[in-house]
Amino acid sequence: MGKFQDTTVKKIIGQLNDSFFLPDIQREYVWLNKEQDKKIELLFDSILRDYPIGTFLFWSLKKSDFETSKETTPVAGKLNFQLYKFIERYDVRKSHNEKVNIEQVKSENITIVLDGQQRLTSLYIGLMGSRTLKKPRHWWDNPDAFEEKKLYLNLRHIPQPDNPDDNYQFEFKVPSALPTPDENNYWFRVGEILELDSVLGYSRKHGLSDEESIMLEKLHNNLCSKDIISFYNEDEKNLDKVLKIFIRVNSGGTQLSYSDLLMSILTANFSSDIRTLMIELVDNLQTSGFGVMGRDQILKTCLLLTGCNHVFKLENFSKTNISKIETNWSRITECILDAASIAEDCGYANNLSSGYILTTIALYLYIKNLRAGKVSVDDRREIWKFIRNAQITAYFSATLDSKLGIAANTMRGNKDLPQVKDFEEFNARMDKDRNISVHKENVLDMLNLQYGSYAVLPVLQVLYPTLDYKNRSFHIDHIYPKSKFTVKNSKLPADYLSKKNNLFNLQLLEGGENIEKRAKDPEVWLSQNYDTVDKIKAYKRENYIDENFTLNWEDIAQFEKDRIKSIKKALEKLFE
């Protein structure tokens, strides 16, 4: 039967990755996703101030309670799920938890942390490890963009008690680049406190003042002597009961999503390491510009492609359905990545509004047994049209399961309707039922679009149909540079200060040209980029601008009127 207990930070830290581990239903570590929040530093500040840091939830088991092999028939009464290690040295380039091989764990007693992962990992990083993040304004492929830092406390900064925003100065620093000790700086590595035999001896050796010694003594007491870790320890081997406790505890914060539990079930029943495979797939998609296709979207795609009910319900992750997913995992992965490849060829890397657009394309590839390289030119054109329409109508933004069901049933057919013969027929069926159609009456809404809307790119692509999106990268560019829509620009009418992102001021421009253009005034850029008057006139015609119109700031109202009229005419013709 469970009960509350207390212990020290030092004792808990010493057991992490030895007998304390994380279950696969836990999310990954996120406290360093936003460095500016300084969550680790504030946690240590709370400890030094004697503030409570919340309770923890542990589950005590025996090593013998776990199934050690997924290759054999599961043993009755054995727990069959994957455990993971705590992150000690956080590196943003590889921030995933390492899985645990139960057979290699030396301790016969195992404690699973059900609540408190973020805090314990933060304590572990601050006391025993380090964190490596990317420097601002540096490229990911630059090795010098990353710095490994350890947590330090400046003993010579004493917070003012009457200033609630004046905290103890905990900071992550590069050990080899610490400030030289002076009247304002004495940086003590926080993890050293765990091995400090005598605070008094250290203080005398390093000439610390009484105030500094008191701060160090308090840090030592609060981390090594005081029982500030309060935890509820469950010791009953009942997975259902523990899951209910877990969900109840998490409902007060960031609630455990249903897919967390479903992923845990998938992990327990896959003979291969599905969590690692899932992480690799999600990372691959993220790197290629399709981060909208996360784990939840992939799980739903697995169900949809294998013909299972795609709604997130426990019964839909039966052993039969999981077996289908595992048997077809390689093909599912191929279809998702091929769908992303096709979407990338259409210019939608980093511009896709929903991962379920990829799901629909992947479903077509799956039922037609196609690889991306074998998709016909006609099919690619129709897939592009589907992406465009889905983005413009925000098709997957509401009633998701219903919309996915419509798309799947339309594509697969039924007893009265055969499976679609190609993607053109799929689009035609969807358009006939007004599920995902764009028509002339939608044009007025398009004219009101602004930069940042996922509908802007497909609308501009309709206006620029001859651009080579497969082999060249195009940016959504401001014709009149957005940085000059300020009160300092005396030539800009005051009522246009808020119109920089309106559709009339947007165009598609090749990536290199856009970078070169920067914040240049349009006529200046044109004169520098095109060497003849005829080429400048051609550029203007191609961009729905009168070839004789001069792009001056004081004439922007006339520019808006004329360009909106030209764009409206073109869109109405294209969508009639």
Features:
single chain; six-stranded mixed beta sheet; 576 residues
Topology diagram in text:
Layout: E1 3-7, H1 9-13, E2 20-23, H2 39-48, E3 55-62, E4 83-84, E5 89-91, E6 109-115, H3 117-128, E7 130-134, E8 146-154, E9 170-173, E10 187-189, H4 199-205, H5 210-225, E11 229-234, H6 239-250, H7 258-269, H8 274-287, H9 295-305, H10 319-327, H11 329-345, H12 355-368, H13 377-393, H14 400-412, H15 423-432, H16 443-447, H17 456-463, E12 474-478, E13 506-510, H18 511-517, H19 522-529, H20 533-542, H21 556-574
Parallel strand pairs: 2-6, 3-11, 5-7
Antiparallel strand pairs: 1-11, 2-4, 3-6, 7-8, 8-9, 8-10, 12-13
What does this entry look like structurally?
The protein is α+β, with helices and mostly antiparallel strands and 576 residues long. The protein has 3 domains: 3-234, no CATH class; 257-438, no CATH class; 444-574, no CATH class. The chain contains 21 helices and 13 strands. The longest helix has 19 residues, at 556-574. The radius of gyration is 30 Å and the shape is flat. Residues 252-256 have low confidence and may be disordered.
Strand order of the largest sheet: 1-11-3-6-2-4
Roughly what fraction of the amino acids lie in strands?
Answer: 5-15%
Helix/strand class = alpha+beta
What is the molecular shape? flat
Average of per-residue pLDDT values: 87
Radius of gyration: 30 Å
- Measure the end-to-end span: 70 Å
Q: Give start-end ranges of low-pLDDT stretches.
A: 252-256
How many helices? The count is 21
- Count up the domains: 3
Kindly state the percentage of residues in helix.
40-55%
Report the major sheet. Answer: 6 strands, mixed
